[in-house]
Design a protein that fits this description.
With 293 residues, the protein is an alpha/beta fold. It has a single domain, classed as 4-Layer Sandwich (Purple Acid Phosphatase, chain A, domain 2), CATH 3.60.21. It has helices at 28-40, 59-69, 77-83, 96-109, 115-121, 158-168, 233-242, 247-255, 267-270; strands spanning 3-5, 16-21, 45-48, 72-73, 127-132, 135-139, 170-175, 182-187, 190-194, 209-216, 221-229, 281-285. Strand 3 (45-48), helix 2 and strand 4 form a beta-alpha-beta unit. Mean pLDDT is 90; it is low at 288-293. Bound molecules: fe (ii) ion (FE2). The site of fe (ii) ion (FE2) has 7 residues, from loops. Fe (ii) ion binds next to loops.
Length: 293
């Protein structure tokens, strides 16, 4: 895997805050709302961890917004496939029907992407190691092992991932790809987190989209939270319909309930339920591994 290290810049006057976002799927107003929310919360670093383009079209426009607002990028399966000129999305759904529909979305996603943008996507690393005031974290798309692995909360195994974190001396990792946000403490100072996606709701009957906020209010302390962000989904849905985007991709933006990808979910995630952990904060204190900039 192609892994890149980022720089950590210390500024004693301002607490460290970083937003981690993924899965824009061409949803322009949702991305703008999430970026505004992150800036409002004092984030100086915005990281995008893959799947910029998707079923909403507007591929060229969304890539320019990401180039403009984000300083760290990680390739998702959509970036890897678009850069390679592939027609398939390589999402990796277990249901063939879900994979077929995702590839239909990928055909829409690739409209309007320039050769320059494809060359830029080819430079995105598969993963990034990012220093924070509480230790190093990994940013990846699907999982630390594979770009298109689906890490669901109900199937998550601390026994699988905690030894990997300890071996690499990372305090945690943030992924996306599934569309469903969650966070998990793996040990006193270790975590795993899925930041959710900006491009569609998380199958809970609510139209909000999601991203992760990581803060270090004091040296060695890391606070993790999942932000739930609203935007004018009704106007966007109407615009997509007028542009001929199929209803299967539009209606979830208005209902908050998925029309595709459901058959591939584990039983627990398949149910439409409210109350995903979007309002909780996970606090880690890692006093022994403070990085001084
Ligand atoms: Fe993905």
């Amino acid at each position: 895997m192609n892994v890149t290290n980022a720089n950590y810049i210390s500024d004693e006057a301002t607490p460290w805050r970083m937003a981690v976002m993924g899965g824009a799927y061409g949803n322009v107003p949702a991305l703008k709302a999430c970026v505004e929310d992150a800036i409002h919360h004092g984030c100086r670093t915005l990281a995008f961890i893959g799947d910029a383009i998707g079923c909403c079209g507007h591929g060229g426009e969304i890539l320019e917004l990401i180039r403009q607002h984000f300083s760290l990028w990680v390739a998702g399966n959509h970036e890897q496939q678009a850069a390679a000129g592939q027609a398939r999305c390589a999402c990796g759904y277990s249901s063939p029907e879900d994979e077929r529909t995702a590839c239909d979305a990928f055909a829409i996603a690739q409209r309007g992407i320039t050769d320059d943008q494809r060359r830029w996507l080819a430079t995105w690393p598969d993963q990034r190691v990012v220093p924070t005031p509480a230790g190093q974290i990994l940013l990846c798309h699907g999982s630390p092992d594979r770009t298109n692995e689906f890490l669901y909360e109900s199937e998550f195994s601390s026994a699988r991932w905690l030894p990997m974190l300890k071996k690499r001396e990372w305090v945690g990792f943030v992924c996306t790809h599934t569309g469903l946000p969650w966070m998990r403490r793996l040990g006193p100072n270790d975590f795993a987190m899925n930041c959710g996606v900006m491009g569609k709701p998380d199958h809970d009957g609510d139209t909000a989209v999601h991203y992760a906020l990581l803060e270090a209010p004091s040296p060695g302390e890391l606070r993790l939270s999942l932000r739930s962000v609203g935007y004018d989904h009704a106007a966007w849905a109407q615009e997509l319909r007028s542009q001929g985007i199929p209803e299967i991709f539009v209606s979830p933006l208005e209902t908050g309930v998925w029309t595709t990808g459901v058959a591939s979910l584990p039983e627990l995630e398949r149910k439409v339920y409210s109350g995903r952990r979007c309002c909780e904060t996970l606090i880690l204190r890692n006093k022994n591994e403070v990085i001084k900039g």
